[in-house]
């Protein structure tokens, strides 16, 4: 029987066992049936929030054979690849930028596979491009794809756009002090000073993972998380129901919360997810504004955890030059953009070419400011 492609509006409409077989032991907390369906079932990812699921599936002999996450977007919130200037430009030309198609993990700027199962990537691309023509959609954006997909994206006329992030790399450290020893003395002193500010306040840390987390932990963390957005007068992307659901599915998603506490009271928390050889830092919040608490809770605790558990990479999120002085190394990120009409395609291609050169210059400058001793330079 030939392949049959279908667009579906719910991950939960698919058979979980069949979906997991497509992953082929891929250890990802995000391209994960439980994570994607929790976003949808909790109401965080809906048409009303600007993330309407429109996933492309492939069936062979009536059995799920391939999956690609796709969302119909009517805004650009929660993507971490900023295209507002593109939307303004198309609006000035009297055309509609939205809705657009987006292949990404909502609110998660982490590299991941974008097609699982079926290896015929061109078939997926052709189906989506035909869908764009039938629905009069101008653009399709694939954010942070894995390297396996890149050659096929380029071959199918996707425009590459570069960004950057800062990632910590474990160079087989046995202890946090081993890590500090690669720094120049001045920055090593600065890090010790930041950590001392926290210890002098008698702030301790309680690390809760999939085995030890309970519902009360999520209640407390949600207060911290929500406070981060309220301080910016923004609405949180994630709701309490989402955290309830990932707690129930925590064995496959592998959340870890680093709680900062004074005496027995939690005052702040940082939420990470463990996938394969990488710890992903995603969300944080605090009820107090304490100097250096963010660095300790979101960076140093994660680094220490990676060292103790032999995890190779710590990806705390996008951007943030302040990470350089704390040992996070600059790396280039990529997104890919299919622009249907030739005039807009040419304009976006020119924009990305110029931006790519600026990103290269920026990353070179970042390398010069890394705080490591000469023998440990990138």
Structural write-up:
- The chain is an alpha+beta fold and 378 residues long.
- The chain has 2 domains: 4-163 and 333-367, Aminopeptidase; 171-311, Aminopeptidase (3-Layer(aba) Sandwich), CATH 3.40.630.
- The chain is 37% helix and 25% strand.
- The chain is built from 12 helices and 15 strands.
- The strands form 2 sheets. It has an 11-stranded mixed sheet with strand order 2-5-6-8-15-9-14-13-12-11-10.
- Helix 7 (185-200) crosses helix 11 and helix 8 runs antiparallel to helix 9.
- The protein is globular.
Quick summary:
The protein is of the alpha+beta class and 378 residues long. It folds into two domains: 195 residues, Gcn5-related N-acetyltransferase (GNAT) (Aminopeptidase, 3-Layer(aba) Sandwich), CATH 3.40.630.30; 141 residues, Gcn5-related N-acetyltransferase (GNAT) (Aminopeptidase), CATH 3.40.630.30. The chain is built from twelve helices and 15 strands.
Index terms:
single chain, about 375 residues, alpha+beta, Aminopeptidase, 2 domains, 11-stranded mixed sheet, 4-stranded antiparallel sheet
Distance between the termini: 52 Å
Number of helices: 12
Q: How does the helix and strand content classify structurally? A: alpha+beta
What's the order of the H and E elements? EHHEEEEHEEHEHEHHEHHHEEEHEEH
Reported CATH architecture of the largest domain: 3-Layer(aba) Sandwich
The chain-level mean pLDDT equals: 95
Compute the number of structural domains: 2
Quaternary state of the chains: single chain
Q: What does the radius of gyration come to?
A: 22 Å
CATH topology of the largest domain: Aminopeptidase
Percentage of helical residues? 25-40%
Strands of the widest sheet, in order across it, are 2-5-6-8-15-9-14-13-12-11-10
Beta-strand content estimate: 15-25%
Low-confidence regions: none
Instruction: Report the biggest beta sheet as strand number plus sense, adding barrel if it closes.
Output: 11 strands, mixed
- Principal-axis shape equals globular
Which class of the largest domain in CATH terms? Answer: Alpha Beta
Strands, count: 15
CATH homologous group name of the largest domain: Gcn5-related N-acetyltransferase (GNAT)
